[in-house]
Design a protein that fits this description.
It contains 13 helices and 16 strands. By secondary structure, it is an alpha/beta fold. The protein has two domains: 14-261, Type I PLP-dependent aspartate aminotransferase-like (Major domain) (Aspartate Aminotransferase, domain 2), CATH 3.40.640; 265-330 and 369-402, Aspartate Aminotransferase, domain 1, CATH 3.90.1150.10.
Length: 403
């Protein structure tokens, strides 16, 4: 039994194909700077769906993380507090800005960063905190925002795995100063690769746009563009800042528009898959299912389960031997990756930024994250997963745990 088996639920359809054909027929695949593009439509639609004023569509989720941090004004030598448990782009994007990631420990019940850990990690060099709504479970935001406000920290919400979950009735991605999203293949909606940022702050939006467009202003929403002035009598194109080319193509935009229109259906299917997990595993001794904070409504990207009565290796071996099934152990504690271990040894980031003595990436830096990760596995709740296959998988887990 494969861990990830798709059923008959289509991710893409004729409506996606029709939009892609329109782009191909136009003979122009890049978004350009006019309003009559699918990328511009997606930005508008996404802003209305989320409830934010400014949206910038990008080529990848990692590009979104970087642009969001650039929008917040993060630069060389700044410290950005982040969780160790996330896809590595959450921390590597900090490195890409010349800044220093400072890892703060997590709630072992769900691997999500806590306000208490953030406060312990604050130094005079701290400028921002990255909050990852891991696996579609909202973080406990009120205490985090209170700590951030007290210490003048900007808050970036990493919503790569969180399209539509709510915290006290508000969608995640509308609580901090800005938010980043991923449209990679496995996410709630997808363009294969792709990303976006969202904010209500025009200055954050402008800085992010410059970073994502080679330093050239290309604003929408009525935000004014500065005009380049000749230098030494020579005209120039107007590159006002350092930046990359992280633009989304209109082929991606064509698919993104349709994907967003289907998100409520996709999220309904995800909820149905999670309901199967709860139905089969809720009362199984030795398992701690994904913990949700009060007044949150998760929409899971995947579903974390902690094993308390045996090791993950023992569980996986028995699943293979007895049921031809398997699980995916959690394996993302960022600072234990080789790239961060090299930074730790050399005492500078990959971009050469010196690391203060108190910033360490040693084993034991975030003990709760490390211990919890040894006992946590994930069930994928992608909306296209075959419900019958998932039911067979969790029934196999139940039989192993109860026999």
């Amino acid at each position: 039994m494969s861990e990830y088996v798709f059923g008959d639920r289509d991710i893409f359809g004729e409506d996606d194909l029709a939009n892609v054909k329109k782009v191909l027929d136009s003979q122009r695949l890049w978004r350009g700077d006019d309003e009559d593009t699918f990328v511009a439509q997606f930005e508008d639609d996404f802003g209305k769906w989320l409830g934010r004023k400014y949206v910038l569509a990008l080529s990848a989720g990692t590009a979104g993380n970087e642009a969001a941090l650039a929008g917040l004004g993060i630069g060389p030598g700044d410290e950005v507090i982040c969780p160790p448990c996330s896809f590595i782009a959450s921390s590597m994007s900090i490195v890409a800005l010349g800044a220093v990631p400072v890892f703060a420990d997590v709630d072992p019940r769900n691997l999500i960063i806590t306000a208490e850990a953030i406060e312990q990690a604050i130094t005079p060099n701290a400028k921002a905190v990255v909050v990852v709504h891991l696996a579609g479970q909202p973080a406990d935001m009120d205490p985090i925002l209170e700590v951030a406000k007290a210490h003048n920290l900007a808050v970036m919400e990493d919503c790569a795995q969180a399209y539509g979950p709510t915290y006290k009735g508000r969608k995640v991605g509308t609580l901090g100063d800005c938010a980043s999203y991923s449209l990679q293949q496995g996410k709630h909606i997808t363009t294969g690769e792709g990303g976006a940022i969202a904010t209500d702050d025009p200055e954050v939006y402008k800085r992010a746009m410059l970073y994502a467009n080679c330093g050239m202003p290309w604003y929408r929403y009525g935000v004014q563009r500065p005009a380049p002035e000749p230098v030494g009598g020579v005209r120039n194109r107007g590159h006002f800042a350092f930046g990359h080319n992280y633009r989304m193509t209109d082929l991606q935009g064509a698919v993104a528009v349709v994907q967003l229109s289907k998100i409520e259906q996709f999220n309904t299917w995800r909820r149905e898959l999670v309901a199967i997990i709860h139905e089969v595993l809720d009362d199984v001794p030795g398992l701690q299912l994904q913990y949700a904070y009060p007044e949150t409504d998760p929409i899971y990207w995947n579903f974390h389960i902690m094993v308390e009565s045996m090791t993950l290796d023992e569980l996986n071996q028995r699943l293979r031997d007895e049921h031809e099934a398997n699980i995916g152990p959690y394996s993302e504690v960022n600072y234990l990756e080789a790239v961060f271990q090299e930074m730790n040894e050399q005492r500078r980031t990959s971009l050469g930024c010196p690391m203060p003595d108190y910033v360490r990436y040693d084993p034991g830096t975030c003990p709760q994250a490390e211990e919890a990760s040894k006992r946590t596995f994930s069930l994928w709740t992608h909306h296209a997963v075959d419900p019958d296959n998932l039911r067979s998988q969790v029934q196999a887990i139940r039989q192993v745990m109860t026999s």
